[in-house]
Amino acid sequence: MIANRQHVPDSDLIARMKDGDESALSALYDRYASLLFGMLMRILNDHQAAEEVLQDVFMQLWNNPGRFDAARGSLPAWLMVIARNRAISRLRGRRDREVLEEEEGDFAGTFVSSENIEDEAARAQMAQNIAAAMEKLPQEQRQALELAYFEGMSQSEIAARTGAPLGTVKTRVRTAMQVLRQSLA
Fold this sequence. Notes:
By secondary structure, this protein is mainly alpha-helical. It folds into two domains: about 1-115, Rna Polymerase Sigma Factor, Chain: A; about 135-185, Arc Repressor Mutant, subunit A. It contains nine helices and no strands. It has helices spanning about 1-5, 10-20, 20-45, 45-65, 75-95, 115-135, 140-150, 155-160, 165-185. Helix 3 packs across helix 5, helix 3 (about 20-45) crosses helix 6 (about 115-135) and helix 7 packs across helix 9. The longest helix is centred in the first third of the chain and has 23 residues, at about 20-45.
């Protein structure tokens, strides 16, 4: 049954989630968790924090699957934006609060994965496609996008670091996102 889940379109799984089907959430988690986790680790550089944010993102999806609008973009892109924003919020809030650890230790030790080679290959291919599309961007656009999405910097912070005017940074990020969207469509 797991092998069949990978062929179900995301839109069908979202519709099933609206009807309370937990297996649809499980299928989406299996499909996109490692992609999101990799990005979260790059931003947070903290295994436990990345896992917590990942769980929060999927809980948000479960609690309100109707917020996803396929007309505005793909589900993995939407999930990445949510995960990125939560990770950045967590980074900014880290100075103000202490994160308490569970007594039982690392949650990853209790996680049972239902990964299979086909799912992993699909995620690896997606990651390669994203990396290839990023490599095609002009250096200034790629740098602005990496600073925004992987280091969690605001556009004002990018302008300060690079010495480029704020309007130029905004244009670079917007143009880079448009090019990536077209390349990955």
